[in-house]
Amino acid sequence: MVRPTRLASPPVTRFPAEFEDILSRQGRRVLAGTHALCGALADPRTRFVAADDLVDRRAAARLRRLLDAQLLGALQRIDRPIPPESIWEMTDDYAELLPKSARAGTIYFDSPREAGVRIARRLGLAAMLRSDSFRAFAAALAGRALADDAGQQVLCYGPGDYAGPHNDHHPRNRRARSGYLDVHLSLASPAVLHQWLVYARAGHFSEIVSVAGPATITAYRLPFWHYVTPLAARPRRARQARRWVLLGTFLFAPARPPRAAQASLSMPSSAARSNSRRKS
What we know:
Blueprint: H1 25-32, E1 48-51, H2 57-70, E2 76-80, H3 85-88, E3 102-108, H4 115-122, H5 125-129, H6 132-142, E4 146-157, E5 162-166, E6 180-188, E7 192-194, E8 196-201, E9 204-210, E10 216-222, E11 226-228, E12 232-233, E13 243-252, H7 259-266, H8 270-279
Antiparallel strand pairs: 1-10, 2-3, 3-4, 3-5, 4-13, 5-11, 6-10, 6-13, 7-12, 8-9, 8-11
């Protein structure tokens, strides 16, 4: 008996135009508003959620291979070590201050002339991160409306790459200083042994979650303290061990005043109209 030959599926050459096209059945429930994670970050006491069943794993694997083939060589390197003065310029015992340290590859979408940005656009990655369904997915987790503009970034962690403790607070940014939302899609290769995200609850680094799955969604109500441990590769597989992170940053939409307040703002009172006539 001759068994029929199974034809391999053609390689993926582009990201889908909409984020929803890579979601699993559970992920589509988030868009539909019926998943348990919907509105999870509306409570200010909840700063972080993670799930590994919201993205179709076969789609995730195909997109990860596409990133490996097309985007790996265009990454910019982040190499920000702990400055030695953080130790040797201390003047008091136990008064150390630790600036953010990190090591990873990245693509910043605010530099359109960079090769990585051009490739990300050609692959459709930039468009997917700006898609309506990605914004709707983020808004569903946030449990609140999001502002129209958003930011995108790509990160890639290899063996030993990490992000040190940081809180992602931007007090000099008027729109972001009161808080904002990050949504990350992690695509880790099978060669990754482990990588962990550690975050603070009630003032202590007491929470830990794996981010080394093949298709992990994490969402952050920033700012809050967290860090990412160094990526560890499986034995003899360091060259294939990497974790791609596709992320969107969303500002919260301004709160609307109550209807009564809106009416008073849009329709001046008779006293206000009288006063305006006296000034004219």
